[in-house]
Design brief:
Helix content is 67%, strand content 1%. With 543 residues, it is mostly helical. It has a two-stranded antiparallel ribbon with strand order 1-2. Strand 1 and strand 2 form a beta hairpin. The longest helix has 29 residues. The termini are far apart.
């Protein structure tokens, strides 16, 4: 039996090694899309020389594929380079939200909200609180991976439960549920911008515009369901397993203490004063409880949010409101829905400023500018990547290759009878596999959306629905790929308790979350599909 067990472990480890080896051989995203841009240019040129054309179903006009490496193509590139970059739709939506979220995060408001959510949870509810906060943690972008797991470990320990369980559960819920949240985030704006941009592949297509809240109803349900699933796994599977295996509850040695000190020194939410009672370990942890001024800051930020809500409701509900459409309503399109970016910006900015003013982290306009500048610096890699993503999307649309692939792919799926929810399942499985190798969500959605959004549109599905399907595959497998850079951060935290732990240890503890998350998320999408429920305001399943 021991030989069989060792064989199973060996196979699993070899699989992880293979994923890491293949992933490490992939170029970083900018180089990857530069290569795809050149390949698309060569293929489009060959197709143009061969006289390839496509007719979109329902239209009389035939679209001839145009080549990049022709006189017309090179002229197009040199005259639209800047337009392709600045016209990349996610920039117009992500950047404003990013500035506001930066103020909310750098002022300490978001971290304080997370801490009070943990601190107010009774012992029995802690696993589900960790699940909910982790799943909705993407509101803080990647910093959620740094803030939530150690906080969860701390509150678990304070409640007399296993701290490693909080650490593992917090990371798993954050990563495996990264693509959804209870409130709109910059990720929603990013996905919506990419989804909209690729629909230019199908000129004159009749579809509902995609905006940052096009998946909002689905996201709310997904956040609740995944939080319950995560809490159940943490409570009924992970913690009993940790106890049964005798995983340490305390720091292992002095080197682990030093690692904790380094983490605290790098973490703006740690106890900068150290321990005043002589307990070195306590002084090196992230504080779970809020100081009085932090509580006051949260209260006043919530009051400001309620006042803003009242103002918005008054503005849009009055007769002849300028935020209504021509029919006097709000769906499927209206100035109100087109103002979503502004509304999200206003909430985060106002709450961040009020909180910062109360606790003293925002004293002047200089502080706000500094926080917004830091938010832009944190996203600098995306701004650079957006340059080549914009060129790739623009080339895909201009050459007509996207239209040709969409029509050919839709015809192929119809020929084999794979056009229903089974095709969507296949799409989500492909996203889950690619997610093992391409960690950047913007890169992977740009690549997949360019092909599958127009393809599924020709099969009768709204772009917002395919975007919702992508969310399932995009996150569920994120916590088991060795290429996730935050796995190394988690490993460092795990080694406080288990100095000999390796990457395989961490990944093996993530596996119990992956399949249940995937199945629950896919089942939820199936309910939306078969009952034809609205995904968000004005966005349905079928065209």
């Amino acid at each position: 039996m021991s030989t069989e067990a060792e064989g199973k472990v060996g196979i699993g480890q070899r699989l992880l090694d293979w994923v890491e080896d293949v992933g490490n051989k992939l170029p970083e995203p900018f180089t990857l899309f530069l290569g795809l841009f050149l390949i698309t240019g060569l293929v489009s040129t060959a197709m143009a020389m061969g006289g390839v054309s496509v007719t979109i179903p329902g239209e009389d006009e035939t679209i001839a594929v145009k080549g990049l490496f022709t006189g017309e193509g090179l002229s197009w590139l040199t005259t639209t380079l800047g337009e392709n970059y600045l016209g990349f739709p996610p920039l117009a939506t992500v950047l404003p939200i990013l500035l506001a979220v930066g103020v909310a995060e750098k002022s300490g408001m978001l971290a304080a909200a997370v801490r009070i959510a943990f601190g107010k949870s009774p012992r029995w509810l802690l696993p589900y609180a960790v699940g909910f906060v982790g799943v909705t943690g993407s509101i803080m972008s990647d910093s959620a991976f740094i803030i939530i797991p150690p906080l969860a470990a701390l509150v678990f320990k304070a409640a007399g439960r296993h701290p490693m369980v909080g650490l593992i559960g917090g990371f798993a819920a954050t990563g495996a549920g990264y693509s959804t949240s209870i409130v709109p985030t910059s990720l929603d704006a990013l996905f919506a911008g990419i989804t909209t941009s690729v629909m230019d592949t199908l000129p004159n297509a009749d579809y509902t515009a995609v905006n940052p809240i096009s998946n909002y109803y689905f996201n709310i349900a997904a956040s609740i369901v995944l939080a319950l699933v995560a809490g159940f796994i943490i409570d009924r599977l992970i913690e009993p397993n940790m106890i049964r295996r005798g995983v340490p509850r305390e720091y292992a040695n002095a080197s682990a203490q030093e690692l904790a000190k380094k983490y605290r020194a790098d973490n703006p939410y740690g106890d900068s004063e150290g321990s005043k009672g002589g307990d070195d370990q306590a002084g090196t942890e992230v504080r779970a409880e809020l100081a009085p001024e932090e509580k006051h800051g949260l209260i006043w930020s919530m009051v400001s949010a309620l006042l803003l809500t009242g103002l918005i409701l008054f503005s849009v509900l009055i007769p002849n409101s300028p935020w209504r459409n021509e029919d006097g309503g709000f769906l499927p399109e209206s100035p109100l829905l087109s103002s979503i970016v502004f509304i999200v910006f206003a909430y985060f900015m106002l709450m961040g400023i009020v909180y910062g003013f109360v606790v003293g982290s925002v004293r002047s306009m200089n502080d706000l500018v500094r926080m917004m500048s830091q938010a832009i610096i944190d996203m600098m890699s995306f701004l650079i990547l957006a340059f080549i993503l914009g060129q790739f999307i623009a080339l895909f649309n201009w050459t007509g290759i996207g239209s040709w692939i969409a029509v050919a792919g839709a015809s192929g799926l119809e020929a084999i009878g794979l056009t229903g929810f089974a095709a969507v399942i296949g799409f989500m499985l492909l996203a889950s596999v690619l997610n093992l190798f391409i960690i950047s969500g913007s890169s992977m959605w740009t690549l997949m959306a360019a092909v599958f959004v127009p393809l599924f549109s020709l099969l009768g599905y709204e772009p917002a629905f395919i975007q919702a399907g992508f969310r399932v595959g995009d996150s569920a497998t994120q916590v088991i790929t060795p290429l996730n850079p935050y796995m190394i951060v988690l490993l460092g935290l795990v080694r406080r308790y288990e100095p000999d732990a390796g990457l395989g240890t961490v990944i093996s503890r993530m596996f119990p979350f992956v399949i249940p998350f995937w199945i629950a998320w896919a089942a939820l999408l199936a309910i939306w599909y078969f009952f034809d429920l609205p995904l968000g305001p004005g966005n349905g399943i079928f065209l």
